[in-house]
């Protein structure tokens, strides 16, 4: 399992806020996705290259627990950790923290898999290497 916690820094932009003046709930998924892609790149996994090889990384489940809202101008960071969920699934455990007070704003578990060119789920070796040695938490 990847022991180190990966981190990507962000700043809320005005247009990401809704009429209440806080970040719209759907925008958080963009933050999480960008952090996952940066994590993969940092680990030598090129999302675009996998797609060219007809290996598609897909999200099959997203669990988001909204704790506190972010507002325009807030600086924050997203952490990423990955672990196996089963033989063909993996979980990205992600948190969003506001920098000024280190408050947890959101906690998420994003479950993904890889699809081969026939649309069958599998975990390619390059993803398995991210959590080599860690046991899967279930069997399917």
Question: Main traits of this protein?
Answer:
elongated, 140 residues, alpha+beta, Thiol Ester Dehydrase, Chain A, 6-stranded antiparallel sheet, 19% helix, disordered C terminus, 3 helices
Q: What would you say this structure looks like, in words?
A:
- The protein is an alpha+beta fold and 140 residues long.
- It has one domain (6-131): Thiol Ester Dehydrase, Chain A, CATH 3.10.129.
- 19% of the residues lie in helices and 36% in strands.
- Strands 1, 2, 3, 4, 5 and 6 form a six-stranded antiparallel sheet that branches.
- Strand 5 and strand 6 (121-122) form a beta hairpin.
- The chain is elongated and about 45 Å long.
- The two termini are 19 Å apart.
* Tally of discrete structural domains: 1
Helix content: 10-25%
Q: Residue ranges: pLDDT <50 for 5 or more in a row?
A: 135-140
The tally of strands reads 6
What radius of gyration results from the CA coordinates? 16 Å
The assigned structural class equals alpha+beta
End-to-end separation: 19 Å
CATH first level: which class? Alpha Beta
Q: Strand portion, in percent?
A: 35-45%
Look at the structure and give the mean pLDDT: 91
CATH superfamily: Hotdog Thioesterase
**Order of secondary-structure elements:** EHHEEEEEH
The appropriate CATH architecture is: Roll
**How many individual helices?**
3
């Amino acid at each position: 399992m990847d022991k180190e916690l990966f981190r990507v820094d962000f700043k809320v932009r005005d247009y990401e806020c809704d009429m209440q003046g806080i970040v719209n709930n759907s925008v958080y998924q963009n933050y999480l996705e960008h952090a996952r892609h940066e994590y993969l790149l940092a680990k030598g996994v090129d999302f675009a290259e996998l797609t060219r090889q007809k290996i598609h990384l897909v999200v099959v489940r997203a669990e988001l627990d909204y704790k506190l809202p972010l507002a325009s101008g807030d600086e924050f960071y997203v952490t990423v950790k990955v672990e196996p969920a089963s033989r063909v699934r993996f979980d990205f455990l992600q948190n969003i923290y506001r920098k000024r007070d280190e408050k947890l704003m959101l906690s998420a578990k994003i479950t993904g898999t890889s699809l081969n060119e026939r649309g069958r789920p599998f975990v390619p070796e390059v993803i398995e290497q991210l959590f080599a040695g860690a046991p899967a938490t279930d069997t399917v």
